[in-house]
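Lab notebook: predicted structure, single chain.

Context: the supervisor wants predicted structures on file for every construct in the current expression panel, including those that have not yet been purified. This is the next one on the list. No modifications to the sequence; it matches the entry in the shared construct table.
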Amino acid sequence: MNRKMKKVNRYLSGRWMKKPVLVLLVFYLMSCGSCTNPLSEFIEKLVYDYGDTGPAGGTIIDFNYIKGSWYYTEVAPAGWYLGGDDPVAEWGGYSTFIDVTSEAYGAGIENTKVIVEALEGLSETGRAAQLCDQYEITHDGKVYGDWVLPSLGTVERLHHMDFQVEGIFMNDNYWTSSEVDATMAVSTIFSDSSTEAYEYKNVPCRVRPVRFF
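Prediction complete. Output recorded below exactly as produced.
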Protein backbone atom coordinates (compact mmCIF):
# COMPACT_ATOMS: atom_id res chain seq x y z
CA MET A 1 0.00 0.00 0.00
CA ASN A 2 1.55 3.31 -1.06
CA ARG A 3 1.86 6.32 1.24
CA LYS A 4 -1.16 8.22 -0.02
CA MET A 5 -3.40 5.15 0.09
CA LYS A 6 -2.29 4.66 3.70
CA LYS A 7 -3.32 8.26 4.40
CA VAL A 8 -6.78 7.66 2.97
CA ASN A 9 -7.10 4.47 5.01
CA ARG A 10 -6.19 6.34 8.22
CA TYR A 11 -8.59 9.14 7.33
CA LEU A 12 -11.46 6.73 6.81
CA SER A 13 -10.67 4.75 9.99
CA GLY A 14 -10.32 7.82 12.23
CA ARG A 15 -12.36 7.83 15.43
CA TRP A 16 -14.51 10.74 14.30
CA MET A 17 -14.93 9.69 10.65
CA LYS A 18 -17.99 7.54 9.98
CA LYS A 19 -18.39 7.97 6.21
CA PRO A 20 -17.19 5.11 4.00
CA VAL A 21 -15.09 5.85 0.95
CA LEU A 22 -18.12 5.39 -1.31
CA VAL A 23 -19.88 8.37 0.25
CA LEU A 24 -16.76 10.51 -0.07
CA LEU A 25 -16.39 9.49 -3.69
CA VAL A 26 -19.99 10.46 -4.36
CA PHE A 27 -19.27 13.92 -2.97
CA TYR A 28 -16.13 14.06 -5.07
CA LEU A 29 -17.90 13.03 -8.27
CA MET A 30 -20.53 15.71 -7.67
CA SER A 31 -17.80 18.36 -7.62
CA CYS A 32 -15.07 17.12 -9.95
CA GLY A 33 -16.95 17.31 -13.25
CA SER A 34 -15.45 15.06 -15.92
CA CYS A 35 -13.05 13.06 -13.75
CA THR A 36 -11.57 10.11 -15.65
CA ASN A 37 -10.19 8.29 -12.59
CA PRO A 38 -12.02 9.60 -9.50
CA LEU A 39 -10.39 7.32 -6.91
CA SER A 40 -6.90 8.16 -8.17
CA GLU A 41 -7.65 11.89 -8.17
CA PHE A 42 -9.25 11.59 -4.72
CA ILE A 43 -6.05 10.04 -3.34
CA GLU A 44 -3.64 12.28 -5.22
CA LYS A 45 -5.25 15.43 -3.82
CA LEU A 46 -4.46 14.32 -0.26
CA VAL A 47 -1.18 16.03 0.61
CA TYR A 48 -0.86 15.85 4.42
CA ASP A 49 -1.54 13.18 7.03
CA TYR A 50 -2.01 13.44 10.81
CA GLY A 51 1.27 14.42 12.38
CA ASP A 52 2.90 15.65 9.19
CA THR A 53 4.82 18.91 9.29
CA GLY A 54 2.67 21.62 7.76
CA PRO A 55 3.69 24.45 5.43
CA ALA A 56 4.35 26.76 8.40
CA GLY A 57 6.43 24.21 10.30
CA GLY A 58 3.62 23.25 12.67
CA THR A 59 1.76 19.94 12.90
CA ILE A 60 -1.18 18.84 10.76
CA ILE A 61 -3.75 17.66 13.26
CA ASP A 62 -6.97 17.63 11.22
CA PHE A 63 -8.13 17.52 7.61
CA ASN A 64 -11.44 17.45 5.78
CA TYR A 65 -12.54 16.66 2.25
CA ILE A 66 -15.00 19.28 1.04
CA LYS A 67 -16.28 19.84 -2.50
CA GLY A 68 -13.37 18.18 -4.24
CA SER A 69 -10.57 19.62 -2.12
CA TRP A 70 -8.72 18.77 1.08
CA TYR A 71 -8.64 21.40 3.82
CA TYR A 72 -6.17 21.23 6.69
CA THR A 73 -5.74 22.51 10.24
CA GLU A 74 -2.18 23.22 11.33
CA VAL A 75 -1.20 23.74 14.97
CA ALA A 76 1.67 26.12 15.73
CA PRO A 77 4.97 24.31 16.33
CA ALA A 78 6.16 23.47 19.83
CA GLY A 79 7.99 26.39 21.38
CA TRP A 80 6.03 28.83 19.25
CA TYR A 81 6.09 31.40 22.05
CA LEU A 82 9.64 32.44 22.95
CA GLY A 83 10.81 28.85 22.56
CA GLY A 84 9.10 27.56 25.71
CA ASP A 85 5.90 25.81 26.75
CA ASP A 86 2.54 27.06 25.55
CA PRO A 87 2.10 30.39 27.37
CA VAL A 88 -0.67 31.22 29.79
CA ALA A 89 -2.74 34.37 29.30
CA GLU A 90 -6.08 35.85 30.25
CA TRP A 91 -8.89 35.76 27.70
CA GLY A 92 -9.38 39.47 28.34
CA GLY A 93 -12.30 41.85 28.26
CA TYR A 94 -13.52 40.89 31.72
CA SER A 95 -16.94 42.52 32.33
CA THR A 96 -17.34 43.26 28.58
CA PHE A 97 -19.63 41.06 26.49
CA ILE A 98 -18.32 41.05 22.92
CA ASP A 99 -21.33 38.92 21.97
CA VAL A 100 -20.29 38.04 18.42
CA THR A 101 -18.18 34.91 18.84
CA SER A 102 -19.21 31.44 17.66
CA GLU A 103 -18.47 27.90 18.81
CA ALA A 104 -18.57 26.48 15.27
CA TYR A 105 -15.63 24.63 13.75
CA GLY A 106 -13.34 27.13 12.01
CA ALA A 107 -15.04 30.13 13.60
CA GLY A 108 -11.79 31.11 15.31
CA ILE A 109 -10.84 33.11 12.21
CA GLU A 110 -13.66 35.60 12.68
CA ASN A 111 -13.72 35.24 16.48
CA THR A 112 -10.06 36.23 16.77
CA LYS A 113 -10.59 39.27 14.57
CA VAL A 114 -13.47 40.67 16.61
CA ILE A 115 -11.86 39.83 19.96
CA VAL A 116 -8.63 41.60 19.00
CA GLU A 117 -10.58 44.66 17.87
CA ALA A 118 -12.56 44.71 21.12
CA LEU A 119 -9.44 44.34 23.27
CA GLU A 120 -7.72 47.15 21.42
CA GLY A 121 -10.70 49.34 22.27
CA LEU A 122 -10.24 48.39 25.91
CA SER A 123 -6.47 49.10 25.72
CA GLU A 124 -5.64 45.54 26.79
CA THR A 125 -2.53 43.69 25.63
CA GLY A 126 -1.06 40.21 25.98
CA ARG A 127 -4.40 38.40 25.91
CA ALA A 128 -4.94 34.95 24.36
CA ALA A 129 -6.40 36.05 21.03
CA GLN A 130 -3.82 38.80 20.71
CA LEU A 131 -0.94 36.37 21.19
CA CYS A 132 -2.30 34.20 18.38
CA ASP A 133 -3.04 37.13 16.09
CA GLN A 134 0.46 38.59 16.57
CA TYR A 135 2.28 35.29 16.04
CA GLU A 136 4.34 35.11 12.87
CA ILE A 137 6.81 32.50 11.68
CA THR A 138 9.04 32.14 8.65
CA HIS A 139 9.36 28.60 7.32
CA ASP A 140 11.12 27.58 4.13
CA GLY A 141 11.44 31.24 3.19
CA LYS A 142 7.74 32.08 3.53
CA VAL A 143 6.14 34.15 6.29
CA TYR A 144 2.99 32.78 7.95
CA GLY A 145 0.95 35.20 10.04
CA ASP A 146 -2.58 33.83 9.65
CA TRP A 147 -2.81 32.24 13.11
CA VAL A 148 -5.95 32.39 15.25
CA LEU A 149 -7.28 31.35 18.64
CA PRO A 150 -9.41 28.28 17.82
CA SER A 151 -13.12 28.11 18.55
CA LEU A 152 -14.67 25.48 20.82
CA GLY A 153 -15.73 23.38 17.82
CA THR A 154 -12.18 23.30 16.52
CA VAL A 155 -10.62 22.58 19.92
CA GLU A 156 -13.02 19.68 20.49
CA ARG A 157 -11.95 18.22 17.14
CA LEU A 158 -8.29 18.80 17.97
CA HIS A 159 -8.74 16.96 21.26
CA HIS A 160 -9.79 13.80 19.42
CA MET A 161 -6.97 14.13 16.91
CA ASP A 162 -4.44 14.63 19.72
CA PHE A 163 -4.85 10.95 20.59
CA GLN A 164 -3.59 10.08 17.07
CA VAL A 165 -0.84 12.72 17.17
CA GLU A 166 0.31 12.49 20.77
CA GLY A 167 2.16 15.18 22.63
CA ILE A 168 0.86 18.21 20.74
CA PHE A 169 -0.93 19.79 23.69
CA MET A 170 -0.09 19.89 27.35
CA ASN A 171 -2.38 18.24 29.89
CA ASP A 172 -3.76 21.59 30.92
CA ASN A 173 -6.56 24.08 30.43
CA TYR A 174 -6.58 25.84 27.03
CA TRP A 175 -8.55 28.88 25.94
CA THR A 176 -10.91 28.83 22.98
CA SER A 177 -12.13 31.95 21.19
CA SER A 178 -15.75 31.18 22.12
CA GLU A 179 -17.30 33.56 24.63
CA VAL A 180 -20.00 32.80 27.22
CA ASP A 181 -20.93 36.18 28.64
CA ALA A 182 -19.35 39.39 29.99
CA THR A 183 -17.21 37.57 32.54
CA MET A 184 -16.67 34.06 31.14
CA ALA A 185 -15.36 32.28 28.04
CA VAL A 186 -14.99 28.61 27.09
CA SER A 187 -11.86 26.60 27.81
CA THR A 188 -11.06 22.91 27.45
CA ILE A 189 -8.69 20.49 29.15
CA PHE A 190 -6.46 18.28 26.99
CA SER A 191 -6.41 15.04 28.92
CA ASP A 192 -7.79 11.52 28.53
CA SER A 193 -11.29 12.96 28.97
CA SER A 194 -11.55 16.43 27.54
CA THR A 195 -13.72 18.67 29.66
CA GLU A 196 -15.40 21.78 28.32
CA ALA A 197 -15.39 24.45 31.02
CA TYR A 198 -16.65 27.96 31.52
CA GLU A 199 -13.75 29.96 32.88
CA TYR A 200 -13.53 33.53 34.10
CA LYS A 201 -11.89 35.70 31.44
CA ASN A 202 -9.33 37.05 33.90
CA VAL A 203 -8.01 33.56 34.75
CA PRO A 204 -4.83 32.62 32.83
CA CYS A 205 -5.10 29.49 30.63
CA ARG A 206 -2.80 27.96 28.03
CA VAL A 207 -2.78 29.30 24.46
CA ARG A 208 -1.93 27.51 21.19
CA PRO A 209 -2.63 29.08 17.79
CA VAL A 210 -3.92 27.24 14.74
CA ARG A 211 -4.24 28.11 11.08
CA PHE A 212 -6.50 26.81 8.32
CA PHE A 213 -5.57 26.31 4.69
